[in-house]
Structure to design on (299 residues):
C-alpha cells in the first residue's frame, strides 16, 4: 500500500513536470507582461503624434512620434526592452526632441497597445521595425534614420541593422548575443542552478507555439552583416545580460566605424542614469553626426 502511494505521488509529479515543461515554461518565454505605463505629457512646445502601422502577419503596431520644436536634425526609432512600452521610452524621446532629434517610440508586438500574442525576440520584430522605417521614409524622405534599442530592443536593433540598409546608424544597448544562451542564463538564475536540457526543450517548444525558429535569433551572428556606424553600450555590472554578450556583438561588426562603450558601475536597467549627462551628450553627438546629408563622423 505504501509503495502504491509512492508510485501515485511520483506519477503525479511526473505529469505536473511534463505539463510545466510543455505548457508553462514555453509560454513564460514568449508571453511578456503587458504594461500600459502612465502617459508622459510633453510640454506645449513638443508636438507628438500617435501612429499605427500593420506589422508582419497583419497585426496592428502602435507608436508615438515626438517632434522637436524647430526643424529636426535627425530621426531615430527607439525600441524598448521586454515587457516595456513606448510610454516608458517617451521621456527619453522628449529629451532627444529638446536637442533637435525627431524620435519615434514604438510598442513591439505583444507589448503595450500593439497587437500580437507572442514575443519572438527579433525573429518577426526586426521585420516590424523595417516597416516602421518604411513609414518614416514616407513621412520624411531623404532624411537619415537611425535605431536605438535597450535590452530586447538592442537585440532587435542589431538584427534590423543587419537586414535593412535604409537605417543609417544604430545604438545597441545592453543586448543579448543569442536567444538560447540568454534563456539558459535566465532559467539558471530563476531556479538557482542550470538545467540546460529543460531550457533548450522549453525554448524549442516556445518556437513551435509562436511559429519561429529560436536558433536563428542570434544578434552576435547577425552583427557580422552590419555596415552602418554603430555604438555598442553595456553596463559592466550587468547581472541580467552579461557585458561579454555586448562585447561579442561589438567584435562581430566587421568594420571600424563602431565604438564599444562600457558604462562603469551600471547594471542592466540604469545605464543612462549611471552614464549621466556625459553619456547622453555622446549619444546626441553621434545621432546628430548623421543629419540629412548623412555625413559620417567617427563615434
Amino acid at each position: 500500500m505504501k509503495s502504491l502511494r509512492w508510485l501515485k505521488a511520483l506519477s503525479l509529479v511526473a505529469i505536473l513536470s511534463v505539463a510545466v515543461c510543455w505548457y508553462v515554461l514555453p509560454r513564460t518565454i514568449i508571453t511578456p507582461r503587458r504594461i500600459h505605463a502612465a502617459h508622459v505629457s510633453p510640454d506645449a512646445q513638443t508636438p507628438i503624434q500617435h501612429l499605427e502601422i500593420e506589422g508582419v502577419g497583419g497585426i496592428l503596431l502602435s507608436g508615438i512620434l515626438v517632434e522637436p520644436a524647430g526643424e529636426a536634425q535627425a530621426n531615430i526609432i527607439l525600441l524598448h526592452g521586454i515587457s516595456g512600452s513606448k510610454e516608458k521610452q517617451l521621456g527619453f524621446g522628449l529629451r532627444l526632441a529638446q536637442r533637435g532629434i525627431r524620435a519615434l517610440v514604438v510598442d513591439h508586438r505583444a507589448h503595450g497597445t500593439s497587437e500580437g500574442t507572442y514575443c519572438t525576440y527579433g525573429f518577426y520584430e526586426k521585420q516590424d521595425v523595417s516597416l516602421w522605417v518604411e513609414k518614416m521614409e514616407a513621412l520624411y524622405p531623404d532624411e537619415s534614420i537611425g535605431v536605438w534599442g535597450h535590452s530586447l530592443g538592442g537585440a532587435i536593433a542589431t538584427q534590423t541593422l543587419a537586414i535593412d540598409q535604409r537605417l543609417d546608424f544604430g545604438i545597441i544597448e545592453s543586448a543579448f548575443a543569442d536567444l538560447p544562451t540568454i534563456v539558459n542564463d535566465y532559467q539558471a538564475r530563476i531556479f538557482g542552478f542550470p538545467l540546460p536540457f529543460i531550457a533548450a526543450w522549453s525554448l524549442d517548444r516556445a518556437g513551435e507555439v509562436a511559429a519561429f525558429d529560436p536558433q536563428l535569433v542570434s544578434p552576435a551572428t547577425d552583427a557580422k552583416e552590419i555596415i552602418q556606424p554603430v555604438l555598442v553600450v553595456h553596463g559592466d555590472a550587468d547581472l541580467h545580460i552579461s557585458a561579454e554578450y555586448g562585447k561579442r556583438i561589438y567584435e562581430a561588426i566587421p568594420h571600424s566605424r563602431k565604438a564599444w562603450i562600457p558604462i562603469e558601475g551600471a547594471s542592466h536597467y540604469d545605464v543612462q542614469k549611471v552614464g549621466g549627462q556625459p553619456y547622453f551628450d555622446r549619444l546626441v553627438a553621434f545621432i546628430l553626426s548623421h543629419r540629412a546629408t548623412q555625413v559620417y563622423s567617427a563615434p
In short: The longest helix spans residues 2-30. Residues 84 and 211 are 22 Å apart (CA to CA). The radius of gyration is 21 Å. The chain has two domains: 1-30+179-215, 45-177+217-288.
